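Hey, weird one. I pasted the CopG family transcriptional regulator sequence into the form twice and got a warning about non-standard characters only the second time. First submission, copied straight from the form history:
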Amino acid sequence: MSNVRQLRDRQPENEKITINLGFVDLGRIDLLVQEGFYSNRSDFIRTAIRNQLDTHVEVVSKSLERHTMELGLRDYSVADLEAVRDAGEVLHIKVVGLARFDSDIPPDLARQAIASITVLGALQASAELKKALADRIT
């Protein structure tokens, strides 16, 4: 008998991006890292992005309200979609951050329950589910 259990696949908690920087800017970042202000280039870049987002917090808040978008992480399960379908309603999903769909959601259930999906950030769903909803994802 084995003590090994299959755990649910762990999803990444962030998204990797690639940026291009000029040599001078990169050198200045490296200098700040070398002087101990930041632990590495990524730390500097994350801090700079957060500072910029903080300066625009009011604009982001007003835009979220205007577009009725959810901010952060939003998970969707079979039970969530069944409840929407059974109530005779459809979802217009609008997320700023991460929208995650459980891997066991059948494509036909998703098509019955979801009218549209707009995600500014990342959408995590099975390839089969993304294909079934391709005409509803913007």
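That's the output from the first submission. The warning seems to come from a hidden character in my clipboard, not from the data itself. The chain has two domains: 23-55, 58-136.
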